[in-house]
Model the fold of this input.
Amino acid sequence: MQLSPLQSRLAASLVASCLLFILYLFLFAPQFASATDVNPIPTGHILDDYPYDVEDDTEPLDLRAPSYEPEFSLFDRSIMGRAANNVVTIGAEEPRSSNIDPGTTNSYVFEPSSVSGRPAQDSNTSRELRRSLNGTEEDAKRKEDDTLALDSDLQPRQHSPKRVYISANTCSQPDRVSPDQTSVDPPQLTLFVSTSKENMSPGPGKDPTTQKAIVFKEGAVMYNTSTGSDIVFSISAPSVSKNYFSQSSPYNYEVAVSLERHYHAYQEDTENEKNRALYWVDSDADSTLLKTKSLATKSDEVISDPPYVVFVQNTNNPSINGIRKSYCGLKRYAQIRPLDDGNGRISTGLRKTEDNNSTIQEFFIGGLNASSDYKGILAINTNSSIQKREIGSPIGGLDGGLIVYNAIKIQTKPIGACTVVFNLTMCPESRYAVPGNQTSYPNRTALAGFYDDYVKTMYESFDKVLQQTPCQAPSTQQYSLARNCNDCKKAYKDWLCTVAVPKCDDFSTVDEPFLHMRNINKPFPNGTLVDKSITDKYGQKKAYNSSRNLAIDEEVQPGPYKERLPCDYLCYELVRSCPASMGFSCPVPDSKYGFNTSYAVPDRNRDFSCNYPGSAAIPSSASIMTVTWASIAIVMIGGLLAL
Ligand SMILES: *[C@@H]1O[C@H](CO)[C@@H](O)[C@H](O)[C@H]1NC(C)=O
Ligand SMILES: *[C@@H]1O[C@H](CO)[C@@H](O)[C@H](O)[C@H]1NC(C)=O
Ligand SMILES: *[C@@H]1O[C@H](CO)[C@@H](O)[C@H](O)[C@H]1NC(C)=O
Ligand SMILES: *[C@@H]1O[C@H](CO)[C@@H](O)[C@H](O)[C@H]1NC(C)=O
Ligand SMILES: *[C@@H]1O[C@H](CO)[C@@H](O)[C@H](O)[C@H]1NC(C)=O
Ligand SMILES: *[C@@H]1O[C@H](CO)[C@@H](O)[C@H](O)[C@H]1NC(C)=O
Ligand SMILES: *[C@@H]1O[C@H](CO)[C@@H](O)[C@H](O)[C@H]1NC(C)=O
Ligand SMILES: *[C@@H]1O[C@H](CO)[C@@H](O)[C@H](O)[C@H]1NC(C)=O
Done:
């Protein structure tokens, strides 16, 4: 078809217009795209929720450049450009693990803006601009920005200062030149945090007024600051002497930034004794029992899995020197540690205590050496969502992702009579070393069974006698207005569990008023006998040459040991709580051999100065009940409950 001149002119101008439009698009398209992208109020119904009107929406676009500026003013562009190669951007709650050679420094930058609720268009602009500086870095962050973009438009444009927590753990240190080199421990890493815009690469040798240097303590560091702008910090490894350490093995650490709490936290050594998290309950020659303080659980939640872990280290073993406060360090180097394959020497479980129904976690650790000193270190990873939900707050009021508590002292006993038992059905709180015998009772479960059966037999006979008193009668017709049969049962059980399941200390333990020698005429496991001067003096006395409960000597045959005597008030409580017709009585304190060989008076100034249910190792003021003599309005006939 032939076009008329008018038509062809129209066509030509149409083509020209199109070309012009395409040229226009080509030149200015980004702004269009940007404008449509960033418009946060696309439809009317959303607008209803906005406190400001559409006109305002154009304003931020113009203001964006200046509002972006302050955030970056910290970085001199040229420095930013130069530093880009070795400064790693770290996000919140994103632990980074890295090797570092002695004598070098790794630098990090944390941008609070990356997690703040900043306007979506704002982060788009900064991303655009930064991409021209470094094209790769921002892509990784886009996802994060996008998720925040949703509700961000109402946030104030300026960052309000935030508390930022920086923490790190040393996971490994340079190897010693030889295992015998134990005189020098590897030096600690140092965290440097820039406090000035002038100092873009904090580290050793920089002006100390422009940075803060915090040396790690036992492989851990915690630092917090309040800031609205980016934080530049670095981890620096000291040079190590080639006389002591391999020059080819680097340090390894994990560093993290958080806006909530320290990702890595530890308990200061100076921490109040009240905040102790872990307690040493008792040991025998090759194992030990530890327990945590009561777990603070959310009232409506039942903890399903034991949340804590424990690390145990012989004090002579230097493998954790310098990393005692580091979760990852202990996980790698502690001598006895929870292993992923579950093949460790630690068994753990949760238990509700009898008295106040609090939940504790217990650890039984086997495979230890006799007569040795150990350190036990409790730790928790609150990172897992189950634990975060179930544990209200970790023990000791500590807040953190990975928390390492103070080390506690543990000692094992010499090879002798004492064996740790637990899980007795009748006496769930009797969890300590009892008189045992490696030859006749090598199996600790079987030994526990022996004591359990004995207690059951005793309790059954008691129960038969108690049934002869009118327990069901109205209180006015009972044996006492103040006490009833349940009080009597409880008092009897508490007394029985300490008397029939004696707490054992090795015969070599230094004498104390609350320790009493038993079974001294029998040989030790190695065949030797008790010192003759002792047997000459006490060998004829029943309180010394036998056990309190003869079945122990007949069945278990433990050899000489020392009994940690039950607290006297357990006996008084029994006498007060049960019907007089049952005939219970306690020895008076100045009877020649009745009292001192049977009970101990609690010493307020000392922990564990006598044995009571649950005494194990937690000094608890509640259970050290003071019973004054004046308050005991009962006549005591010596001897019956002694021995
Ligand atoms: C951008 O940053 C990455 C990682 O920090 C770095 O490897 C890369 O060389 C940088 N690119 C430019 C162009 O600076
Ligand atoms: C933050 O640091 C200050 C000073 O170093 C310190 O006193 C404070 O306890 C720290 N806060 C936390 C939550 O660790
Ligand atoms: C026990 O002692 C031996 C020899 O001293 C030592 O090699 C080993 O590591 C010790 N074991 C424990 C668990 O302490
Ligand atoms: C903490 O949790 C995050 C996400 O659930 C996970 O990626 C990280 O490995 C965990 N860290 C530790 C030490 O368990
Ligand atoms: C003690 O008994 C409890 C409950 O029966 C059990 O779960 C736990 O494994 C026992 N402890 C040990 C160390 O055997
Ligand atoms: C110890 O004794 C218990 C029961 O008495 C038994 O189930 C267990 O297998 C024994 N353990 C060993 C190592 O013999
Ligand atoms: C035998 O054992 C006892 C008690 O544990 C100890 O005092 C004594 O030194 C030991 N004797 C030998 C020869 O090992
Ligand atoms: C009993 O022990 C107490 C405290 O150790 C002591 O003062 C008292 O003399 C002892 N009595 C007898 C009869 O040994």
